[in-house]
Specification:
Layout: H1 2-5, H2 7-12, H3 17-43, H4 53-66, H5 72-91, H6 96-110, H7 118-126, H8 143-147
Region (Disordered): 126-148
GO molecular function: branched-chain amino acid transmembrane transporter activity
Transmembrane segments: 22-47, 59-83, 95-118
């Protein structure tokens, strides 16, 4: 998070942001490779049609719907998008892609933190507002202070 938010500050503290980015990239690539290796036994077959722009867009929409700021967000987004795809594609087979786009636009517009931020928003709304600080009365000036 520090490298994402303020790369110069991390460099000033003595860390090399390039190394942090490299470790993050290698970890993500390793996890993607593992997921790809586990995909074939789960589905039973793989073909080039499954590796295209549409599945990539679905992954991005899943992350956006769930929220990218936490590990729980993309999981929630993947489940929500998969559930919506299954139920809505049965009812509206020709319009599912439009509904998926609408879901993406609505979440980005009205819930920028994704589904993972709903709990934080609910907690914030339940919490009573803080009491305002007591205001001290203005000092009064007496006639003796004016002549002094």
């Amino acid at each position: 998070m520090a490298v994402r938010d303020s790369e110069e500050r991390v460099r000033f503290l003595g860390y090399n942001p390039a190394n942090v980015k490299l470790v993050a990239y290698v970890t993500a690539a390793g996890m993607a490779g593992l997921a790809g290796a586990l995909f074939v036994p789960a589905v039973g077959i793989i073909n080039p049609a499954l590796i295209g722009i549409v599945p990539s867009i679905e992954f991005v929409i899943g992350v956006a719907v769930g929220g990218r700021a936490s590990l729980l967000g993309p999981v929630l987004g993947a489940v929500a998008v998969a559930w919506a795809k299954t139920t809505l594609s049965e009812e509206f087979p020709a319009a599912w892609t439009y509904l998926q786009g609408l879901l993406f636009v609505l979440v980005v517009a009205f819930l920028p933190g994704g589904l993972a931020s709903v709990a934080r928003l609910v907690r914030r709304r339940r919490r009573p507002p803080p009491d305002p600080a007591p205001v001290s009365p203005a000092p009064t000036v007496t006639p003796q202070q004016v002549t002094a």
